């Protein structure tokens, strides 16, 4: 009898590992794991006359196998012990201790007194992190609204630990920040809505009726534009390396300029300043350092905030140093005027054109598709690359959460593995199945020389013939959710209907989808087959998971959220874990 491929039996062990993780890391009877295996895995065991216990014993680092009262149990090695007795068995391995999250100060707060102390507690990093995580969960939710009870299950362990040790309920805490969170009671339940388009860097209590010092722009009835919301998220990413720099929003700067009590410094290059400059701004040069010593407040600005935040940290600490969050792009969104009568703006590099207002401004050197990269310095590429690295980390976290929640048994290819396979083998041995919608494919799809890419509908039309071929099938979509569900349905249909297939049939999903493909340098083609740098992100919530450099996103500002996207959008609430 032919031995099973090592990757096939390892895949079964990983499937069981995911089953345990999906049960909250509680140990699972081996018999229950056997019942929950996919039809493909059960078929592999049957064809090679293997027991599940034999397979798991081969991979002790992936799955622990141990007896309890005559029943074999499985668990994930080193995971928190949630078994039926106090100490884990030796086969489970050493349980890694959890990092402490409680402080003596919080533990000493009497029940019901935390609300009265909120003005003092607001400076705690743990409270600020708690509010930022809750805000992030709401920003990623449809209409930025969730049940308060949902937040408890979605929030990370640090947030739950803070609420527990400070003896605060989530509703009590959020009511203390009424300028940021709106609570609406619905019978026994409460709804919370986040009132800003992006997560605030710092929250200040509104318990005494004072407006937060760093409040974001007031939302218009129709909400912020897609470009503005994306810009503020990008601004947060590119200024991450400068944590001590303090920002000011465009509408607040406009008020400050009217008082005449600040110096406004333009950190951009001469080429950018020649196109347009903010009112009364001065260029950054060696003479400025002396002049600003006598001024109380100095505000720096650039295109989107990265250069000005860096300068803000380098200025003398004796100054009140601020930088314009979102730079001239945010100023343009607020319909701010420029020093000269002009509507022309230099957007530093062509990728940033899509973050400026889509109407009312003439971006220097033409439209986004034709604007050349400005050969000023290597900083645009470096700044955008830093932002893309953060987005890739978020994408990988979300892709893993989507897989674990909706199709834990489906084998997934990482994009690095896909590209390595294409380089080392004939790409014609693979078939990519595009599980996205027609509007998405009309913009662009994946490109690799010699690699066939087929829409999902076309694949299904030839499905009975294709699955008998030796091709390796890789499904993909935006971030991997739809493609994983499709792969799971295919394998289930094959098992339920007894469809004849190739003995070594492989159907896998591309983890992270086309977004991960682009992060790893993958290429695109448009509808006609020509090279493209445009891509459709499907929904607004996924737009900021794509790389920034070398790409133009295509999505209507008013596009509604498809129902099949909502389960995957919910997974973005795990970004901060």
Automatic annotation (TrEMBL):
Gene3D superfamilies: Rhodanese-like domain
Family annotation (SMART domains): RHOD
Domain of life: Eukaryota
Domain Rhodanese: 258-340, 426-526
SUPFAM superfamilies named among the record's database cross-references: Rhodanese/Cell cycle control phosphatase
PROSITE patterns: RHODANESE_3
Name listed for the protein in its UniProt record: Rhodanese domain-containing protein
């Amino acid at each position: 009898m032919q031995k099973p491929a090592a990757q096939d039996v390892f895949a079964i062990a990983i499937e069981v590992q995911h089953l345990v993780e999906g049960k909250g890391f509680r140990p699972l009877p081996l018999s229950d794991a056997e019942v929950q295996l996919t039809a493909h895995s059960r078929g592999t065991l049957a064809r090679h006359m293997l027991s599940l216990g034999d397979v798991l014993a081969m991979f002790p680092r992936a799955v622990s196998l141990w007896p309890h009262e005559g029943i074999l149990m499985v668990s994930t090695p080193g995971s928190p012990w949630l078994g039926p007795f106090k100490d884990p068995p030796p086969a489970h391995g050493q349980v890694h201790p959890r990092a402490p999250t409680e402080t003596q100060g919080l533990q000493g707060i009497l029940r019901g007194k935390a609300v009265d102390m909120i003005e003092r507690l607001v400076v705690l990093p743990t409270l600020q992190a708690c509010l930022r995580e809750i805000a992030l969960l709401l920003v990623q939710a449809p209409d930025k609204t969730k049940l308060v009870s949902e937040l408890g299950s979605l929030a990370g362990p640090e947030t739950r630990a803070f609420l527990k040790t400070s003896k605060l309920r989530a509703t009590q805490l959020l009511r203390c920040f009424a300028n940021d969170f709106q609570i609406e009671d619905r019978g026994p339940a409460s709804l919370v809505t986040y009132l800003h388009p992006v997560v605030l860097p710092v929250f200040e209590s509104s318990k005494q009726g004072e407006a937060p010092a760093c409040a974001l722009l007031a939302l218009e009835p129709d909400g912020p534009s897609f470009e503005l919301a994306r810009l503020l998220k990008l601004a947060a990413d590119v200024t991450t390396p400068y944590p001590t720099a303090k920002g000011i929003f465009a509408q607040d700067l406009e008020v400050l300029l009217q008082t005449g009590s600040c110096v406004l410094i333009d950190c951009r290059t001469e080429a950018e300043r020649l196109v347009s400059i903010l009112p009364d701004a001065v260029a950054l040069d060696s003479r400025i350092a002396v002049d600003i010593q006598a001024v109380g407040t100095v505000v720096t600005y650039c295109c989107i905030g990265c250069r000005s935040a860096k300068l803000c940290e380098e200025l003398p600490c004796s100054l009140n140093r601020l930088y314009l969050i979102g730079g001239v792009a945010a100023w343009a969104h607020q319909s701010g005027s420029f020093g000269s009568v002009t509507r022309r703006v230099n957007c530093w590099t062509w990728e940033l054109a899509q973050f400026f207002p889509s109407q009312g401004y003439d971006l220097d050197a033409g439209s986004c598709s034709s604007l050349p990269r400005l050969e000023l310095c290597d900083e645009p590429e470096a700044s955008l690359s830093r932002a893309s690295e953060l987005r890739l980390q978020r994408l990988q976290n979300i892709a893993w959460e989507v897989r674990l929640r909706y199709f834990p048994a489906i084998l997934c290819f990482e994009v690095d593995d896909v590209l390595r396979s294409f380089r080392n083998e004939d790409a014609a041995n693979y078939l990519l199945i595009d599980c996205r919608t027609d509007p998405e494919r009309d913009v662009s799809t994946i490109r690799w020389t010699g690699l066939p890419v087929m829409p999902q509908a076309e694949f299904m039309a030839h499905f009975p013939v294709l699955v008998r071929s030796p091709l390796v099938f890789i499904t993909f979509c935006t971030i991997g959710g739809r493609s994983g569900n499709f792969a799971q349905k295919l394998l289930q249909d094959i098992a339920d209907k007894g469809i004849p297939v190739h003995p070594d049939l492989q159907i896998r999903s591309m983890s992270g989808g086309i977004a991960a493909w682009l992060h790893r340098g993958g290429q695109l083609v448009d509808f006609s087959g020509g090279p493209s740098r445009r891509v459709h992100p499907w929904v607004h919530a996924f737009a900021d998971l794509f790389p920034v450099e070398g790409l133009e996103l295509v999505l209507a500002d008013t596009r509604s959220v498809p129902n099949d996207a909502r389960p995957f959008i919910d997974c973005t609430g795990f970004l901060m874990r």
